[in-house]
Specification:
The protein is α+β, with helices and mostly antiparallel strands. It has one domain: Jelly Rolls. 22% of the residues lie in helices and 31% in strands. The chain has a seven-stranded mixed beta sheet. The chain has a two-stranded antiparallel ribbon with strand order 4-7. Helix 2 links the parallel strand 2 and strand 3. It is globular and about 55 Å long.
């Protein structure tokens, strides 16, 4: 007998993998020069990011300013090619529906801590990610939002699983 919930879970997992692959492909299309290694005496190109909508969120007693990545292209680019991120700044990824999303660090130069959030903004799990890696870091349960901050930010503020992020647009 087929368990319908297992089938649904496997389909969601397959869709998630498909979305990750599409995002990686989109990143290659929109940033084709990123894979090329510069010559030793070549100048580095400064990548100009299109301005994203910003919002202030509240986590515990901390106010943070986030850029909001809500389109497929914005989510695929994320924090790629950035070299700095302010102390209380981050990026909020808004997905169209809740799933077990995965994140990676392709062409991202800043070490990041990523929090996966449910529909109501509660933190499901927090993962640390190293720069310029393609290791998948995934939500442990279905997530609707992903919040990226500087690596260690959540630990330094004493923010843990279950904490609610307020003010999500």
């Amino acid at each position: 007998m087929i368990n319908l919930s297992q089938v649904k879970e496997r389909l969601r997992y397959a869709l998630n993998i498909f979305l990750v692959l599409i995002s990686m492909f989109m990143g290659s299309i929109f940033c084709p020069f990123a894979a090329a290694k510069p010559e030793s005496n070549a100048q580095l190109i400064e990548v100009k990011h299109r301005p994203l909508t910003k919002a202030d969120l509240l986590i515990a007693s901390y106010r943070i300013e986030v850029e909001i990545a809500k389109t497929l292209k914005q989510r695929a680019e994320g924090l790629m090619f950035r070299h700095t991120l302010g102390q209380h700044q981050g990026m909020l990824f808004v997905f169209p529906s809740s799933m077990k999303y995965c994140m990676w660090m392709r062409n991202t130069f800043i070490p990041i801590s990523v929090a996966f959030l449910d529909e109501s903004g509660h933190i499901l799990n927090i993962e640390d990610m190293e720069p310029k890696t393609e290791t998948a870091h995934c939500a442990k349960k279905s997530a609707r939002y992903v919040l990226e901050m500087n690596k260690g930010w959540f630990d330094q503020q004493g923010i843990a699983v279950g904490t609610q992020v307020k003010g999500i647009p």
